[in-house]
Design the sequence.
């Protein structure tokens, strides 16, 4: 019975080490179990009338999808002058992660 517990413990530790950073947002501080951050990248201090967000996602580091490009955001929102750019990240246990880009600006 002791060997089984020892083997089970090793399996849990090995699994944790293998999957802990498979899906990572890539930017900002990362927590081992959970990450949720907002990072201000650019800001002019001017008021803005429009705000738009787009995200890219990763599952286990095997599947990634989404378009969080600056050009995509500008075209989708009709923003001509960008006044603020932020990144938000979210990750849980290396299983799922996302990086969202949020821009604010005026037409």
Sequence:
């Amino acid at each position: 019975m002791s060997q089984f517990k020892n083997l089970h413990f090793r399996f849990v530790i090995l699994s944790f080490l293998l999957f802990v950073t498979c899906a990572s947002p890539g930017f900002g501080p990362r927590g081992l179990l959970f990450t949720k951050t907002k990072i201000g990248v650019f800001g002019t201090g001017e008021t803005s009338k429009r705000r738009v967000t787009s995200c890219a996602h990763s599952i286990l580091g095997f599947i990634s999808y989404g378009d969080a490009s600056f050009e995509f955001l500008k075209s989708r929102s009709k923003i001509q002058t960008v006044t603020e750019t932020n990144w938000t990240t979210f990750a849980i246990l290396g299983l799922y992660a996302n990086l969202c880009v949020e821009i604010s600006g005026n037409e």
